[in-house]
Design goal:
By secondary structure, the protein is mainly α. The protein has one domain (7-59). The chain has 4 helices and no strands. The protein starts with 9 loop residues before the first helix and ends with a helix.
């Protein structure tokens, strides 16, 4: 079931795809943005950074203000 504000989360989800945490930053969630950014950088050390990108996108898309 889609929420009524699902279209307003498209831009943050796309932004998080390219730079993890950017979507959360657009939504005004500074701590979450920093967490996703640092977590994804750490995961890239083990070649799992793509996982951080996907999780960040899903979080930005599903967040309700």
């Amino acid at each position: 079931m889609m929420s009524t504000n699902s279209t307003s989360n498209v831009i943050p989800a796309l932004a998080s795809f390219f730079i993890p945490g950017l979507g959360q930053l657009i939504q005004g969630r500074l701590l979450a943005a920093l967490l996703y950014f640092v977590l994804t950088i750490a995961l890239w050390v083990f070649f799992l950074g793509w996982l951080g990108h996907i999780i960040s996108c899903i979080d930005a898309a599903r967040w309700r203000s």
